[in-house]
Amino acid sequence: MRRVVIAAGGTGGHFYPGLAVAQALKARGWEPLMVVREADAALPLLEAEGVAALPVDLRGLPRRPGPKLFAFAWQLAGGVLLLSRALKAFRPDLVLGMGGYLTAPLACAAWRLGVPSAAHESNAILGLANRTAAGFGAKIFRGLPPRDGLGTVVGTPVRPALWTRREPGEARRALGLEAARPTLLAFGGSQGAKGINENLPAALKKLSLPALQVLHLAGRSKADEVRAAYRAAGLSADVREYLDDMGAAYAAADLVVCRSGASTLAELHAQLKPALLIPYPHAAADHQDANARVFEKSGAAVLLREDELGGRLGALLTDLLKSPEAEIHRTKMAEACERLGLPSAEKTTERFIEELEKLSRT
Q: Distance between the two ends of the chain, CA-based, in angstroms?
């Protein structure tokens, strides 16, 4: 039985693609070991999935000089030693980093022991951890067409539950929504998106589209304040903190308003959903803006920067939801998703696994 170690700790954007790869390899007879951060919230999920986990006490690289930087260096050295011991004991045929800060120490440990390594970069810009991993000989795979030309484009794996495109009316009923009403889906990740939460209710009030129903995933502990914002705008909306069944949420939506994290974009591509993308303005190296521009360039999405929300959000929503050409515009955006040059969601995982299996035999 072949074995693989996958570093996928840090954020859901790294973890869930890593889990999708682990599940696919496990189905092909591999034994996966997932490296995650200590006390990671994903540990119960890995246990439920029957995937072994190795927690590592390491946090992200501090962005400013100071005492935290020295503490990080100490933790990083300890992480490399811990992972080196783990690789010696587990004897993997391959290691894979999914781009979070655990990728670099795993690549270093693999380089020390001569284990083939790979790193997946889901963003349009190659992150620091993956640049470091490439320096240790890791083969780079890309989720989006890269601006720097480095690596092999395979797409970003998504959960199999998102491969299937469900009928909108059925999905709306499953979510407790009205089956025949046009639907807007808005979300900003597990923590929510302040810009979307604060600006969308007011913009929808100006839009004045009574037939529209809104499913707004506000983020942890944000639902009450967002419900209050809709009430203040004189609107009703289905506001929730989060939703497990994102496949149903995407299927129900005529338009999605969201951030442009790479995993979100992979899910939009899998579901062929038109989107209004509002990049997180404080993302490292402004990578969410770079991601969104890939979709904007192909015509698959409209890009709106956070500092433009107050002035342009209402006009863009009118264009995408209320204008005479709104439905045609959204249809063209969905069709453009297929022209991004990325494989389908199912083919993404299949192709990536094939590439990893070839690398493990080199």
A: 17
